[in-house]
Amino acid sequence: MRSSGMGGAGYGSSGNIDSRGRPVIPDYRYDLEATEILWQWLHAQPGIQSVRFVPLPIPPDSLRGVSPWRCEILAAGDRVVTGEGDGHREALFYAVLALAKTPAAPVG
User: What is the pLDDT of residues 73-86, one digit of tens each?
Assistant: First the structure.
């Protein structure tokens, strides 16, 4: 993870952990480069069935080299959350954030 250059942790690198020892996802919203923690959090979630990246059409006014993507996460109970962004990392970030904010379907 990147350093802030001021001797402390960079944005999104605070290392906050919840009561179950899992990273607190919202602390990573400012550092799209810190995707490893997102993959670790996603891997620790029960019921994740697949993660898929889908290329989106490039808008005519898009900057050269910017490729928009959608990340689709399929979880138990046919729950699908998505995130879109200019690249895989940004799309993954928004999909994981949506998953963290969306309540899971009741079991039973």
Answer: 999 888 999 999 98
